[in-house]
Amino acid sequence: MTTINREVTPQGDLPENPERLHNDLHEIWGNPRGLKALTIVNHTTLGLRFMVTGMVFFLIGGLLAMLVRTQLALPDQDFMSPDIYNQVITMHGTVMMFLFAIPMLEGLAIYMIPKMIGARDLVCPRLTSLGYWCYLFGGIILTFSLVLEMAPDSGWFMYTPLSSSEYSPNLGSDFWLLGITFVEISALSAGVELVVSILRTRTQGMALHKMPLFAWYILAMALMIVVGFPPLILGSILLELERAVGMPFFEVAGGGDPILWQHLFWLFGHPEVYIIFLPAAGIVSTLIPVFAGRPIVGYGWVVFAIITTGFISFGLWVHHMFTVGIPQLAQAFFSAASMLVAVPTAIQVFVWLATLWLGKPKMKLPMLWIMGFLIIFVCGGLTGVMLALVPFNWQVHDTHFVVAHMHYVLVGGMFFPLIAGLYYWLPLFSGRMPSETLGKWGFWLTFLGFNGTFLIMHWTGLLGMPRRVYSYETGMGWDIFNLLSSMSSFVMSAGIAMVLLDFALHFRFGKPAKHNPWNADTLEWANSMPPSAYNFVSLPKIETRHPLWDDPDLPRAMAAGEHSLAVATHGRREMWGTDPLTGKVREIIHLPGNSWWPLFAAMALAVVCISLLTRLYPLAGIAVVIAALFLLRWSWENGAHPKAAPDAHVAPGDPSLHSRTMDGPGLWAMSITMLANGSFFLSYLFGWFYLWTVSPEWRMPETSPLSLVGLVVAAVALTVGGGILEKLVRGLRQQRDAGLAIGMFSISALGFVQVGVTLWVLLSANLAVTETSHDAIIMVGLAYALLHGGLGAVLTLLQGLRVGYGYVGAHAPFEPAVVAQLWRYNVVTFWIIVGALAVLPRVIGS
Amino acid sequence: MRLSIQRLTQQRVNLPGVPLALLAGLLLTGCAGDKSILDPAGQAARDVVMIWWVMLGFGTVVFVTVVALWLYAFKRKEVTRTPVQERRIARRWIIGGGIILPVASITALLAFGVPAGQRLLPLPLGEPPEVIEVIGHQWWWEVRYPDAEGGEVVTSNQLIMPAGEPVDFHVTGADVIHAFWVPRLGGKIDMIPGRVNKIRLEADEPAVFGAQCAEFCGAQHTQMQLYVEAVERDEYDAWLAARQTDELTSLAENDQQHEPAREAFMTHCASCHRVAGLSTAGEGPDLSDLGSRTSLGAGIMAMEEGAVTHWLKHHQRLKPGNKMPPHDDIETATLESLGAWLETLTP
């Protein structure tokens, strides 16, 4: 069987000297040292940075957990004051969820995905870098609040009105809202680029149904991040506006509703659980076939389970709110849906079982952690089904029973597979093997400690111990169970310390790993160990799901440059852009190199975050402008720009560079970004209609305060601009670029007309945004329209300039098509805003 | 947190030890205030416990089977099979374990569990049940009896309900979200500002139950507790009758020797607390029948001779962050006279 695609890389190009090729590729892809290491955009380096940073936050979160268990070890302890205790529990949840679980798994995906799908990097490398810096800075800002003793203390779910300025007047809530939103930029950017990378940059021949299961899981996770995070971002923005400006979105007296926050929070919060679980299940589905020595049975079943989990998880959020007093019918629906999610999970459990059953499983160290996962997770899944039953939920909701359940699901469903995965991939990271002895000790201490802590906690909860109490009195029958939980938790931390020690020591003392030490089937093991910055000297054509099992010679052949794109003379970072379904090559994607702009932009955003925290609003405004300028400057280095790909020459027979086609990955990145944006917009519409129909003291004027004529004029200007842009893009598709610059400038002008008129409508409406939630939420909708209109106008203006510089035109036609997507989105959402905010109230009335 | 008072006293506050030691002894022996879900005292809670035990049994069987199968997969001898056989085995596992098992379990669970939930719903009854309104404050409970004969009765931090008949609790929050939960009677329901939620509970027989705020509500969420006392119907009616405004007013004014305490009350307390006949404020807990209550500070310390004074002196240490300002500026003698007078308010 040959894996060389002879159609696109003529054999004559085969390099004579793989060593020289390696050096040439290293020249292009290699990481700079010193201060310039801050400019690195490479996925291997950034994936590791994500994971190491995630581990540091894990230690912080774990330390907080130990403080909690110390406080609760005995009744009536005053080791911590109530105030500090509340900060500690809030930060434990927040750090573990937002600064450990998600970034850690993202880091693993960022590291692994390109290697598994035969690519050389993620498709938006600078975005990886921006994501990392936002994560790091946001995480530091958030945890710094602990040092200041000003940490958020309203619980990691930040329910209003407790988190509002009236009941939490200090900066804690602001740290949470601003810090988390900042960190979420990182989650979203990783989400977008992982989706696009998986869909568009798999090596040739890797059709969707030949993709490693891990990539399916990450695809689902990334899409869920893209759709699931925006509701929380909206919620955070609204709550921060309420706190800082006094816009009463969640305040009953002002016509708001605290339950709106709960809906927005759990609209994010429940998918979040599966965002964490799916990649971990992906690790399980990757490891089990390897250690069973046979392909997974029921690949299709697993894909089906992943997709259904993704969908169902968006229909479960209300099960966190069964005690809120929502209507019976809704409770029954969400109760059944919550139980139904057990079906795809059970399918996976039995697929794994059947794979072991039909294979020859070996109990190596990673498999030990998988077994631990199974035991804990099945237990957590069963209590999950119990909790979905409303009458039972009413009893145990907000007791330690739920604390136990949640840790069974999250630690069992995320942490154990994660450690299994890290042990499995350690040889790839470092080229060395971990210590079996230390690893086994680590596992057993963690496993026994975990169960000792949390199995008992179910019982404590059933005895009536509520959550989030800083102490309890003796004589309730809770003492001994709490003491056992606390003691076990220290056993567990000793186990985790051992695992981390093993990880740290193996980099120096581990014995060198042989190539592909577990005899795995997927492409990441065709890398050198540790991997080079460009991953593969040449990119193979994939025929099966198990490239390394079916062709054990493949790694050598790839390293010898016997496959495609083994060219470095052009000085570009290149890889394949392939068809999302079939994996047929469509173009060569050239990637940008290292850059300061992501770091600078993230620093400017950090200034925005800090100045909002300290209420220095003018500084925040300036920093926003600076951040926007950095981001725009970054976008300038694209297409035919001297720093991108001024020379479009490709080897004979190869397809053209993506920036010279109408088919680049940027189109996909923009679509996925607009998907996230659309989720944000839908959440906003949900908020508007929710307040209108449900809020207890909603007040609405007789007629809409917004000028309908003004809005229609603005909408028409926007629509005409969008129409011209579509026409220009159609022209580019046919290689015509006559009048492109002037066209872009006039579209931009129309965009500014829309912005101006909308601004006039907003100002002339005399909204009393601090008086009623009605006016406040209208204000947010119009601000959204203004921001998007402004962005569209500026980007088309830049396109006009880029035509002048020669970076865009018939020879490099791709960018206007990307901008056109934003315009299309703007036109559609603006008309919806006009309809929802100005027309409907006139038609239906208050 | 009742014992913490004792510990605090020993460690930091010099108070006569005898009454407090007595107090501690009382608290240790009484099982009043138990919050175990597993010890139900009403039908709704009993149904849930039954569901729990059944679910636990069934869940254990599933759990043990799945884990045993996994472990067995590692131990069993290798068998060579044709791909067709393999596919058949895999399909059996996946359809049997992945689809039939969860779907059947869920159906059984819903068929069994949904009727149990009906009991907690305030569905119409032949005879309308007693209504008790409970309003959550940071961090105390306001309790109202709108149906009381002779006019609404208002009290705080104590809840008396008739035993052996369904009672509808109408709950809401005055500031942030709290939750009303009497574990031994069943359910819990959020107390949300701007909304009234309803839950129906019934106590089998007269007894005292612990209750607790179950939604995190800030610094003193932990010490937002309550004793719910179920009494016979006639006792309940008598209890309500004794708390009619006229009765309480005469109680507050009856004794000349407490005149200085009443004046101190009007100066220091009346802007937040109600004592029927003297003040009408509702910022803090109603104190009109304080002496007759079983606990102080929202269920955190037992009512005893000298307990009110102790609370007045040390409340910020007993319940840090509570909304009553510290009384360092008030003379000890005044606090003591206030405490003594408040303890006489026993209808």
Automatic annotation (TrEMBL), chain A:
Location in the cell: Cell membrane
Spell out the CDD domains in the cross-references: Ubiquinol_Oxidase_I
**SUPFAM superfamilies listed in its UniProt record:** Cytochrome c oxidase subunit I-like, Cytochrome c oxidase subunit III-like
- Which residue ranges does the record assign to the Heme-copper oxidase subunit III family profile domain? 585-843
List keywords of the entry alphabetically.
Answer: Cell membrane, Copper, Electron transport, Heme, Iron, Membrane, Metal-binding, Respiratory chain, Translocase, Transmembrane, Transmembrane helix, Transport
**Catalyses which reaction(s):** 4 Fe(II)-[cytochrome c] + O2 + 8 H(+)(in) = 4 Fe(III)-[cytochrome c] + 2 H2O + 4 H(+)(out)
Residue ranges annotated for the Cytochrome oxidase subunit I profile domain, each copy included = 28-543
- Give the domain of life: Bacteria
Topology with regard to the membrane? Multi-pass membrane protein
Q: What pathway annotation does it carry?
A: Energy metabolism; oxidative phosphorylation
UniProt-listed Enzyme Commission number(s): 7.1.1.9
User: Which residues lie in coiled coils?
Assistant: none
Kindly list the residue ranges recorded as spanning the membrane.
46-68, 88-111, 132-151, 175-201, 213-239, 273-292, 299-320, 332-356, 368-394, 406-426, 438-460, 480-505, 596-613, 619-636, 667-686, 706-726, 738-764, 776-801, 822-844
Instruction: Work out whether the entry's keyword set contains Ligase.
Output: no
PANTHER family of this UniProt entry? CYTOCHROME BO(3) UBIQUINOL OXIDASE SUBUNIT 1, CYTOCHROME C OXIDASE SUBUNIT 1
The similarity comment for this entry is: Belongs to the heme-copper respiratory oxidase family.
The molecule here is called cytochrome-c oxidase
From TrEMBL, chain B:
Its placement in the membrane is given as:
Multi-pass membrane protein
**Domain Cytochrome oxidase subunit II copper A binding span(s) in chain numbering:** 127-242
- Residues annotated as domain Cytochrome c: 256-346
Q: Signal peptide span per the entry?
A: none
Concerning CDD domains, the annotation shows:
CuRO_CcO_Caa3_II
- Name the PROSITE patterns for this protein: COX2, COX2_CUA, CYTC, PROKAR_LIPOPROTEIN
Reactions listed under catalytic activity: 4 Fe(II)-[cytochrome c] + O2 + 8 H(+)(in) = 4 Fe(III)-[cytochrome c] + 2 H2O + 4 H(+)(out)
Q: Which PANTHER family match?
A: CYTOCHROME C OXIDASE SUBUNIT 2, CYTOCHROME C OXIDASE, SUBUNIT II
What name has this protein been given in UniProt? Answer: Cytochrome aa3 subunit 2
